[in-house]
Amino acid sequence: AAAASFAAAIPAFAAKPLVIGFSQVGAESEWRTANTASIKAAAKAAGVTLKFADAQQQQQNQIKAIRSFIAQRVDVIAFSPVVETGWESVLREAKNAKIPVILTDRAVNVGDQSLYVSFIGSDFVEEGRRAGHWLLDYAKKNPNKQLNIVELQGTTGAAPANDRKRGFAEVIAANPKLKIVRSQTGDFTRAKGKEVMEAFLKSEGKNINVLYAHNDDMAIGAIQAIEEAGLKPGKDIIIISVDGVKGAFEAMAQGKLNVTVECNPLLGPLLIKTAQDVVAGKPVPKRVTVQEGVYPADLAAKELPNRKY
Ligand code: GZL
């Protein structure tokens, strides 16, 4: 019996915890904060050692972090690429070091798809289309309204910015009355979103009827600018945004935001499971998408208590 219990103890020592090196974009938005919390909680719950690096939205910092994970010989490297391009060489270094790479949240543009094992994240083009479809419906219900649009784009070169722009433009092309009169990056932050909206208001003024913001944080910044200009957000200027963070539900409950297209940040459990499967030599799907919906203002008050982020 003693030998059996001793033998049973060995695996506990033998199975050293999985070590994942994670390079996060930054801490630019409520969405990012929720995404980081989900990843850290899932790693903790699974007994995984997580080496976490915040890149302050700079690609060079992510490349440095990935190189340091390679030097530390982590079991798996995971990251949310701040922009789509410029990753080939560092991902080739990870491949040569035989360390599997998992992408979460944002995608990369690489010729060689073997440079990462799986991409877990939303379909941003579809999110842009959903924003466009909401506006097409709004236009149908308000046939005599002028509908000039200003657009606050996400971080220049980021997959969600490129794709949300593309999906939205593709859908609104069905109605020639829907025109984007100004479009500029607000870098996914409240501060920059407010600053750029102030500039839009100065140059376009009453000519702005709709704001399409690629995330809720920029929309919330823009709402402040609209109010400081003496206009009513959600009424004088219809506002469509993306993410579905708590701040958006609060703005909708106050009648200042008209709709938010959900982008699910709770990717932690999927990331940990995929990393465990990769290390165990199990096959993993190349592409994993997550469920998400659209929340117009009239659903906000009811949905707010259910929100997890
Ligand atoms: C989308 C994510 C975006 C969010 C922003 O998956 O990459 O980055 O929409 C965040 O809020 O800054």
UniProtKB/TrEMBL annotation:
Tell me which residues make up the Periplasmic binding protein domain: 20-282
Q: What PROSITE patterns would the database entry show?
A: TAT (PS51318)
Record key words, sorted = Signal
**CDD domains in the cross-refs:** PBP1_galactofuranose_YtfQ-like
- Principal subcellular localization: other
PANTHER family assigned: D-ALLOSE-BINDING PERIPLASMIC PROTEIN-RELATED, GALACTOFURANOSE-BINDING PROTEIN YTFQ
Q: What is the official name of this protein in its record? A: ABC transporter substrate-binding protein
